[in-house]
Fold this sequence. Notes:
- The protein is of the alpha+beta class.
- The strands form 6 sheets. Strands 22, 23, 24, 26, 29, 31 and 32 form a 7-stranded mixed sheet that branches. It has a 6-stranded mixed sheet with strand order 10-9-12-17-14-15, covered by helices on one side.
- Strand 20 and strand 21 form a beta hairpin.
- It is globular, with a radius of gyration of 24 Å.
- The two termini are about 35 Å apart.
Amino acid sequence: RLLNTxxxxxxxxxxxxxLFAQTQQSxxxxxxxxxxxxxxxSISIAGQIAASAKTVEYxxxxxxxxxxxxxxxxxxxxxxxxxxxxxxxxLPGPSIEADVGDTxxxxxxxxxxxxxxxxHFHGLHMKGxxxxxGSATVTQCASGPLQKQTYEFIVLDQGTHYWHGHTSMERTxxxxxxxxxxxPDNDDEKxxxxxxxxxxxxxxxxxxxxxxxxxxxxxxxxPFIWIGNAQTFLINGGGVYAPCLGDDTDGLxxxxxxxxxxxxxLDNYIKSIEVxxxxxxxxxIISGTELIGVNFAIHGHNMTVVExxxxxxxxYEVENLDIMPAQRYSVLITANQEPGNYWxxxxxxxxxxxxTGYLNIKYKDAPAANLTLDAAVPNHPxxxxxxxxxxxxxxxxxxxxxxxxxxxxLSTDPxxxxxxxxxxxxxxxxELDLLRWAMNNVTMRMSKVPLITQAYDAVASDSENTWxxxxxxxxxxxxxxxxxxxxxxxxxxxxxxxxxxxxxxxYIPLTENEVVEVVLQNALALNGVxxxxxxxxxxxxxxxxxxxxxxxxxxxxxxxxxxVNPVRRDTVSLLPLGWTAIRFKANNPGxxxxxxxxxxxxxxxxxxxxxxxxxxxxxxxAAARSCVENSLSPQAADDDEPSSSxxxxxxxxxAAASVLVGCSILxx
Length: 668
């Protein structure tokens, strides 16, 4: 248990000397480096732990749940019989709240008889804690059905974040919730807290009536079955399925009436946030959407953007806010209107249709009145207009960029920066006979053994090559540039042809402290449409240094970069037919997923993993070894091993047959 800096270093030294002794004879150079790096990482983490640090523990139970006519209370939108995966029967799930330096411990009991799960803490970079990211097949094995798992880690990243399932599409079933991390010692955060009286979470989710695994089946089928549009949009777990209110626009009201709760009404199902006239509130807006970006606005109230995914920015006032999947913002609003009920609504961005989300901003002591859709709603931009997104991006400026330890990468000699141009394309994979996404012609697939373990074992056993020259058997290295470049505004099938490339456990090797610039380049899908994509990097925050439209030009486009005060975040949007450039320092050894956050795109192969200096990480815990073996015969962790309490401990209470059902979802 990490109670103070002295105790932390002593415990780590004691635990790792035996590991060093066992391995130094066979490979002294690598293990000397590994041991030193682990101790240095330990000291680095310890230096960020305040004397007041505490342990915050959560006990969660994940269950498959359905609302019914007899008990509609679990339905978020009046619709009945939708299969959900809920933690403690909450939608969204429980909030994790802690201070920087605290130890967070999450005990999760998976009572699903079919689903294997992993829990990712989106926005927590887990620096120096490479096995705690919760990304199945990258940093850990998923825990099988009817198993328990414990995550324990040190919180180092302030801001508005969220947790969610990270195995298949289970987060679309409700398996997600907020993370709020405060830093009492951060001057910018302390100053921001003087600007508002109270705060609230605004959690956004597009809600499909088909469960995630059914959606996944359609994506993995030929003929291909797209997930389509959501039936409802939820804000803080509340919304109303339009046909249940008698909306017969699609001719479905009568047909679906039997699937609607008897108590369906706006007042019963739309959530409210109560405010008091004259006070200012911090709204932490979290996009847990599965597919769509949205524009969020509050009738009669402007918003001031003050935080982006942990970074305090120069205040920027907006009438409405674009937010893409997995992004997070804090905005300040002042209750400066006549007491009453005011609609906060969402409208879809970069897809031509989606249901509207509703949230009631309710003034304290407002006259009693039923909610109605006839009340005034805020204005939103048209779905396909890019100017609001660009204007927002132009004004997301980090307040004190030189307060970050990686700020120097903005002034790094361009010749020393590794530039990766990552082009996302669609293809009909001839081997799989499925429609897939690929990055630089490589389609991501999930590994049976976590990539971090494969990398660790490979560098430990390779006496001839040092990283990044080590070969990882059975994997595919994604090239830094697409093998065939073309004008990305033209259809790929009319340019270089539909090139299937390769598919597999894909990664790009990095070395510690390497400065990396990734240019995400959008292209047309096979149907001739260019989608918006939202990309998330695990393990490292990055600076968004540039963006534009058309084909990225390496000679001219970097001249337009913002290298003074760009926003520092972990999830970035890639607009249709556009490019976005991000820059980060690979200062966190481990294996870190980089993928599209739209779940359907990710499971179809849009992503890869950055593996950074695996010769500098500690040995894997039991839960990061063979996923099938660990699920069938879980091993209790040894108390003397530092890994036993750092990432996950399984308690096996499941028969082999049921585990194989769950694992088949993960390993296909």
